[in-house]
Design brief:
heterodimer; A: about 110 residues; mainly beta; 7-stranded mixed β-sheet; 4-stranded antiparallel β-sheet; B: mainly beta; globular
Chain lengths: ~110, ~110
């Protein structure tokens, strides 16, 4: 079956701009989580969506937002980009986020802010 | 808060050597514990997991035991191969599920033929 698909794979933006990243989960999966990966901070949890509702949220400023559609596809948006937002953004999908299911990660979107 | 600590620095070892990567955690309640592996240019793949104390997760020759008394989840493999070269992340889920993961910094493992 198809895996988790993230688009685009690479993105270059200018400071102050905004960006939207997309994540298509595995068919049937309703939980989508987003993570930011940087060399300095490592992997940090951004937020999780389940059945179109934000269920969990990490410690990121309000410039980072997301949403989930009825087909479980999710988008995350970063407004007023800063140089420090340059990172690999990963999404993970699972059936429902429960312990007895597995989270599958996409290959990520590499965002560079210049 | 919830956090995961992995030993500092890359790990370089010869093929067929024994691998240990230390992982300790801080969490309230009863978290689930995970090891993920990341190969170059790819996303994370679940290697193994344990959902309660004394559980042992195992996969592809790797093992880790959930030790509540020492708050540890060390990863071990008896005989590594060149194909095991990757970055390994220890993680926990405070809610016990597989979402809202808190990750360690990761360890680069390089296996030399």
């Amino acid at each position: 079956k198809a895996g988790v698909t993230q688009t685009p794979r690479y993105l270059i933006k200018t400071r102050g701009q905004q960006v939207t990243l997309s994540c298509s989960p595995i068919s049937g999966h309703r939980s989508v989580s987003w993570y930011q990966q940087t060399p300095g901070q490592g992997l940090q949890f951004l937020f999780e969506y389940f059945s179109e509702t934000q269920r969990n949220k990490g410690n990121f400023p309000g410039r980072f937002s997301g949403r989930q559609f009825s087909n479980s596809r999710s988008e995350m948006n970063v407004s007023t980009l800063e140089l420090g937002d340059s990172a690999l953004y990963l999404c993970a999908s699972s059936l429902d986020g429960a312990a007895n299911t597995e989270a599958f990660f996409g290959q990520g979107t590499r965002l560079t802010v210049v | 808060g919830n956090s995961v600590t992995q030993m500092e620095g890359p790990v370089t070892l010869s093929e067929e050597a024994f691998l240990t990567i230390n992982c300790t955690y801080t969490a309230t309640g009863y978290p689930s514990l995970f090891w993920y592996v990341q190969y170059p240019g790819e996303g994370l793949q679940l290697l193994l997991k344990a959902t309660k104390a004394d559980d042992k997760g195992s996969n592809k020759g790797f093992e880790a035991t959930y030790r509540k008394e020492t708050t540890s989840f060390h990863l071990e493999k008896g005989s590594v191969q060149v194909s095991d070269s990757a970055v390994y992340f220890c993680a926990l889920s405070p809610s016990g599920g597989n979402n809202r993961l808190a990750f360690g910094k990761g360890n680069q493992v390089v296996v030399i033929p």
